[in-house]
Write a structure and sequence with these properties.
single chain, alpha/beta, 7-stranded mixed β-sheet, 5 helices, 7 strands, 34% helix, globular
């Protein structure tokens, strides 16, 4: 092997090691106490409304659900919020409902961020780490895809561009047609507090 080939080989190994190191935090992530893992069904919890009324988590059953876990102090959470709004309003998530869960310690800080970001999807605030632990939010942001029966299908750690073609394809594939809008008119995934598509 000549010097040039060796340098190329070393460069490739460095890139692979860097990619593996970036992937490690998600793979090596410690579970939270009482975490509901992929394939398991979410337990009941009372959601305390930030920009809407309180409601039980199980009231979202019957349609696929996308849950975004965030905090006002989390830069990546703030960065991806606009793409979640666009996804909700575009109808690209089909029948899936979108909600946000704030892990802020102070309600006023969460409300201030929602107001500053012009949030329209329904957001709730966690208390005593109940949802944070159940959902597995050891890192933020966290987005969870849940089927119509309340079973966790996927967990995505880190900020995403949620209305990008790749993200929409991942959502559609995860829901396996549950959220693709087939079998009827395509409706927005933005929901009101009553769980019906908002107009």
């Amino acid at each position: 092997m000549n010097d040039r080939q060796e340098a190329t080989s070393t460069g490739r190994r460095s890139l692979l090691m860097a990619a593996a190191a970036l992937a490690l935090p998600a793979a090596a992530r410690a579970k939270t106490p009482g975490e509901v893992e992929i394939g398991q069904t979410l337990r009941e919890a009372q959601l305390d409304g930030l920009n809407g009324k309180p409601r039980p988590l199980t009231s979202f059953r019957g349609k696929p659900l996308i849950i975004n876990v965030w905090a006002s102090w989390c830069g990546p959470c703030r960065a991806e919020m606009a793409s979640l709004e666009r996804l909700a309003w575009s109808g690209q998530a089909g029948q899936a409902q979108l909600i946000g869960i704030s892990t802020d310690d102070y309600r006023d800080k969460a409300l201030a961020w929602l107001k500053a970001s012009n949030a329209t999807i329904s957001h709730y605030i966690d208390h005593r780490l109940e949802l944070e632990n159940m959902l597995g939010a050891s890192q933020l942001p966290l987005t969870i895809l849940v089927d119509a029966r309340g079973r966790v299908l996927a967990k995505v750690y880190g900020a995403q561009e949620w209305d990008s073609p790749a993200a929409v394809q991942m959502i559609t594939r995860s829901f396996g047609g549950q959220g693709d809008g087939k079998g009827g008119s395509k409706t927005s995934s933005k929901t009101s507090d009553k769980g019906t598509p908002a107009r």
